[in-house]
């Protein structure tokens, strides 16, 4: 029995810890306790199985491994982006965006649904936190949609799915953690995820469009009396055209002497400042040139868009690292909230408290994963996982599909931090053996986790929406009507079409890796393609050596000193030279004798290493 346990300790440990996690025990403490418990078991049975490489002094490595987490610059981006998102969410930026974009798309059928998708994308690009996006949009958009007779299932599904965009749209926290665990650049992960994220947003909008064609009564247009900003789309288009013109002119004239990426940044900044300044002047100086709609759209939309460019643009252009971009984003969010006069001491305290809790949560999970990993690798659990995955049929595609199913199922029960810290390090060796690009692999896992957030009955996004959706009849203050509650089954049904889109997107990324691997064209160098050519030490083909007196005569491990030939060995004073390495060098044109054969050549004198060298 003990022999059976010793030889199967890795699967026993993995299944036991996973079972405890699925039951609901705290993740960080379950991982740490499981790692320590099986460490003791592994040490006691290590004399039975040679595969177990655990011994008591190995425990002394834990302090250094845990302290090493604090040196991780990549994970420092998590509190920055979290703080930025919380400040923007508490300064009611989502409310302003939903109201303005809802007015812009109001005359169109499904306008509020389009607004929810686009605002979800904007919030994802600024907050990066699913809970904040879903709750903010649910509190603001859902009552308005129900007020104007949107189908409750369609409305709730749109809001829940749009909130999960924070999982895949940069600067997603999922992508930061994924890049850290895969050992890849966060900037490359952001660039690789950009096209799939844009395709998902477009697919959501296409679904809304199809619903407005098939079921127009599910998503009616806003009545004219609710469009408080009126018309005036033409002035908005003209202002945007003027901003593009300013960008082109400044790019080719004012900033033409700067480097390409710096020119782009300053030209885009100039165009944005022009449009925003003109809109502010039109409002406060009563110029009357722009319509109220154009004025409001520019004033509300441009600051968060500028913040997104400040964060993601500088990262994509290589001007800032993700950690630096997060720091700039957090500073920009504070400035934005201060300018709008919505920054108070209580809001700042709430954001700092929530950021501290999330950062501590991540750190404790990572500490538990380190303790678990030391024991699991010590019993060759990584090799067991790798062999298990490599035996799957279908090669690379079979591996990706199997991992997609496994991670999807685990995503219904575990948070993405837990999956990233536990599962991803175990999947990487098999992926590398199959030659899978790890950025591509990470984006597939990110889309997969986004899908699991939507899947009934355990999707976290559905739980967030359920917590703020009305569960009983309620009276709408604007219309004065009593509206029915939102049932849980309606939320689940509304999420199904978006889940199908997510699965199709996973298959699309697997079938067309170029949607992700285009990041390699941005100047990233493959370390495996670097060829290092070491110049010769001495004179070769008439070329001078390193300039040492007399040269090094080719290889320093050639013929012994004092012998004729093409190159002399390295001569040290008083040691009589170094003995040759390998076969003796060619002497007087004769080839060296084979091993074991007699030779008439005298053996070179060997230095007496028992005496100290003399420097006479």
Automatic annotation (TrEMBL):
Domain of life of the native organism: Bacteria
Location (main, coarse): membrane
Membrane-spanning intervals of the chain: 12-45, 66-88, 112-142, 154-178, 190-214, 226-249, 264-285, 297-317, 360-379, 399-426, 438-465, 495-516
GO MF, any single term: transmembrane transporter activity
Residue spans of biased composition, Gly residues class: 544-556, 564-579
A cellular-component GO term for this protein: plasma membrane
Record's keyword annotation contains RNA-binding: no
Domain TRAP C4-dicarboxylate transport system permease DctM subunit: 14-515
Record membrane topology: Multi-pass membrane protein
Keywords for the protein's UniProt record, in alphabetical order: Cell inner membrane, Cell membrane, Membrane, Transmembrane, Transmembrane helix, Transport
Location of the protein in the cell: Cell inner membrane
UniProt-annotated stretches for the region Disordered: 543-616
Function: Part of the tripartite ATP-independent periplasmic (TRAP) transport system.
Protein name (database record): TRAP mannitol/C4-dicarboxylate transporter
């Amino acid at each position: 029995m003990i022999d059976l346990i010793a030889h199967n300790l890795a699967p026993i440990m993995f299944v036991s810890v996973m079972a405890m996690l699925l039951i609901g025990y705290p993740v960080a403490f379950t991982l740490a306790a499981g790692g320590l418990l099986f460490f003791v078991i592994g040490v006691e049975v290590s004399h039975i199985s040679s595969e177990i490489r655990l011994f008591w002094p190995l425990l002394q490595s834990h302090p250094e491994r845990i302290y090493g987490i604090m040196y991780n610059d990549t994970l420092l981006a998590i509190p920055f982006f979290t703080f930025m998102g919380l400040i923007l969410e508490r300064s009611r930026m989502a409310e302003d965006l939903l109201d303005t974009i809802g007015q812009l798309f109001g005359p169109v059928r499904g306008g509020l649904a389009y607004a929810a998708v686009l605002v979800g994308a904007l919030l994802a690009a600024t907050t990066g936190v699913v809970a904040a996006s879903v709750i903010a949009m649910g509190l603001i958009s859902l009552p308005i949609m129900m007020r104007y007779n949107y189908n409750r299932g369609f409305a709730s599904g749109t809001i829940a799915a749009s909130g999960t965009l924070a999982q895949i749209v940069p600067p997603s926290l999922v992508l930061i953690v994924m890049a850290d665990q895969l050992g890849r650049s966060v900037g490359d992960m952001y660039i690789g995820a950009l096209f799939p994220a844009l395709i998902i947003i477009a697919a959501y909008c296409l679904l809304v469009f199809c619903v407005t064609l098939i079921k127009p009564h599910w998503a009616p247009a806003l009545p004219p009396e609710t469009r408080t900003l009126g018309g005036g789309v033409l002035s908005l288009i003209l202002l945007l055209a003027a901003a593009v013109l300013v960008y082109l002119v400044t790019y080719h004239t004012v900033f033409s002497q700067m480097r390409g990426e710096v020119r782009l940044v300053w030209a885009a900044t100039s165009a944005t400042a022009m449009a925003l300044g003109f809109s502010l002047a039109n409002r406060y100086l009563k110029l009357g040139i722009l319509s109220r709609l154009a004025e409001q759209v520019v004033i509300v939309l441009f600051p968060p868009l500028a913040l997104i460019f400040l964060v993601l643009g500088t990262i994509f252009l290589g001007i800032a690292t993700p950690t630096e971009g997060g720091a700039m984003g957090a500073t920009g969010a504070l400035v934005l909230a201060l300018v709008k006069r919505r920054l108070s001491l209580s809001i700042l305290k709430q954001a700092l408290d929530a950021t501290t809790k999330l950062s501590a949560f991540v750190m404790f999970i990572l500490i538990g994963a380190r303790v678990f990993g030391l024991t699991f690798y010590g019993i060759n659990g990584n090799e067991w996982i790798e062999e298990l995955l490599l035996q799957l049929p279908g090669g690379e595609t079979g591996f990706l599909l199997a991992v997609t199913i496994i991670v999807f199922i685990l995503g219904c029960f575990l948070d993405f931090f837990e999956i990233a810290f536990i599962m991803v390090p175990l999947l990487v060796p098999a992926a590398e053996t199959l030659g899978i690009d790890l950025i591509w692999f990470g984006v597939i896992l990110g889309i997969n986790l986004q899908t699991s957030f939507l899947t009934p009955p355990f999707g976290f996004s559905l739980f967030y929406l359920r917590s703020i959706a009305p569960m009983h009849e309620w009276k709408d203050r604007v219309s004065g009507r009593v509206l029915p509650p939102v049932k849980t089954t309606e939320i689940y049904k509304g999420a199904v079409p978006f889940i199908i889109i997510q699965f199709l997107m996973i298959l699309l990324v697997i079938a067309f890796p170029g949607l992700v691997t285009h990041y390699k064209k941005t100047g990233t160098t493959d370390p495996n393609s670097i060829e290092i050519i070491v110049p010769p030490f001495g004179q070769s083909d008439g070329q001078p050596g390193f300039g040492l007196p007399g040269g090094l005569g080719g290889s320093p491990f050639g013929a012994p000193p004092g012998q004729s030939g093409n190159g002399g060995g390295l001569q040290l004073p008083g040691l009589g030279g170094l003995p040759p390495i390998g076969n003796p060098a060619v002497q007087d044109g004769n080839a060296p004798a084979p091993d074991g054969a007699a030779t008439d050549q005298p053996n070179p004198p060997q230095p007496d290493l028992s005496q100290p060298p003399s420097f006479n």
